[in-house]
Structure formats: structure tokens, C-alpha cells
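Notes from the 1:1 (GR / supervisor)

We went over the backlog. Supervisor wanted to see one worked example end to end before approving the batch request, so GR pasted a single chain during the call. The sequence is below; no edits were made to it. Supervisor asked that the structure be written out right there so they could see what the output format looks like.
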Amino acid sequence: DGVDTAKSILNTFRCGHSRGIAPALILSYEMFRKYADTINTVTELNLIVCDEGHRLKKLDGNKTIRALSACRAKMRLVLTGTPIQNNFEELFAMISFVAPGYLGSASEFKSMYSNPILLGCESGANEYERQRGETAAEALREKLSHIMLRRTQEDILRQLLLPRIDYVLYCKMTDLQTQRYKQISDRIRRVVSSGQSTEQVDLDNEEAEEETGSA
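Structure output shown during the call:
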């Protein structure tokens, strides 16, 4: 069954690393959590790549993060298409998973970076607080530049595609389209005037009735 198949694949993965073959394993976060005890016995794992990294954005952690954190991979890489903006706890959680201790403890991070930056952004901040916040923000950007690579869609497409040019063309309706447009407009106007919902307008039946009447 599925469980036996999963266990067989994981066993092949584990044994392969012990023999120096270094196979790759692709699985969901849920599967990793379920079989973490087996996966985390691999001591020669070179790299773990976590896609949809926004799922790791919890400072206090959860079962998935704890399972991943116990992985013995020599390198960790997190991919995310979700910008981390104005939420320092999420930023700290993701960086701490990739590079444990790189930003210090949670209290040190708040004291050195997040608190001064947030205070300096307050509308009532004085000149000293604003300057201190800017200094902390610049220090954080510099520190993150060594382990974080940020690329926007514009940065990537600019190198591959020519600038987009939009042309807007206005086309006059044909006589038949004009007639049909007037029929629909009149029908909706009558429905609205009678207090009904425009969702109740049956345009096809209305057209059939008008054709029958004209015949």
C-alpha cells in the first residue's frame, strides 16, 4: 500500500546516502513531518531546500519546523514568493531556520533591530529615534545581504523579454451589435424601474419575444 511504498522509498534514500550515492528526495511538508524520524537519521545529507518558505514563518515554531530543524543537512535553502514586509517576527523565524543564531536570540534581534526600526517609523518619533531607526535598518539590510537573495519578477523578466507595448484600438459597433445593445439596455432599464434585480433578466427570452412580436 501507500505506507509501505513510502517506507521503501525512504529506506532507499537513507541507504543511498550511507553508500555515498547521494540521491534526491522530493516530498511535502506533511510527509517530512510524518517520516522525520527516518529522514533525520541521514547524517550525510548535503542540502535541504524548502519551497513555500512562508509556511515556516512562526517564531514559536510548530511540529513541521521542529522536524525540519532536526534535519542534519549541511546547508539549508528557503524559497518563497511571499514578500516579508513589516513583520520582523516572521523574518527572524525564517532566517533562524536557515542560519540558526545568525540574528542572535529573539530578544537580541528585537533590541538591536526591530524595536529601533519600528520606533523610528512612528509618526511621533523624534530626530534621535528616527536616526537610530535608520541606522538599525541599514545594519539589518547589510547583514541580510550576505544570506538573502531577493529577486522581483521585474528583475528577472527585464533580462529575458523586450519592454511590453500596449495598443488600445477602439472599434465601432456594427448595426446588428448596436441594435442588440439597445435591446439589452432597454430591457435592463425596465427591470430596474420595476424594482427587480438585474440578475433576473432573461435576455434570450426577451429577444425571442421581440422577434415573435415583430413577426
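Supervisor's comment: The radius of gyration is 30 Å.
Batch request approved.
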